[in-house]
Input
Amino acid sequence: MRDISRATGMSLAGLYHYCESKERLLFLIQKHTFSTIIKDLKARLETVTEPEDRIRIFILNHVQYFVSNQPGLKVLAHEDESLKHGLSTEIAGIKREYYRICLGLMQDLRCQRGLDFNTRTAVLSLFGMINWIYTWYNPRVDGHAGALAEQMGNIVLNGIVHGGKPRKKSTRKQ
Output
């Protein structure tokens, strides 16, 4: 809190007037982040009906937010279990909503295309991919958020379309 006080030029007492603890501040950061991501996602999904496009929008929305807010993602990843005293319950509910949105998108794709894959595994694999961006993302190497999201979407969706099974080896000589 002292570091925040110094960085903002606000007195420590003034800061505590608005935010009574570090835990409350962490709660507010997490709530803002997840609420913003969900609100933006829902707005983007409103006019799109194609399941594959909707999954790509989910990925793009997530990647764009976190590429432009990398410090926030770092806080979320490393301080996730720091919330106590009921504050974690509200954040867990928002996170469950986000997970359920993605799960629904995967289920829609599976049903519409008649695919055979485990939607929970697909969603958790996707989250594993997109949630660690802050540890490795370098715009000079990885490109802008749109290009990165497209590549990630290709990896996830091509894996799903082929059921996670390796393609048959070519019989032609190389």
Summary: The chain has one domain: 22-161.
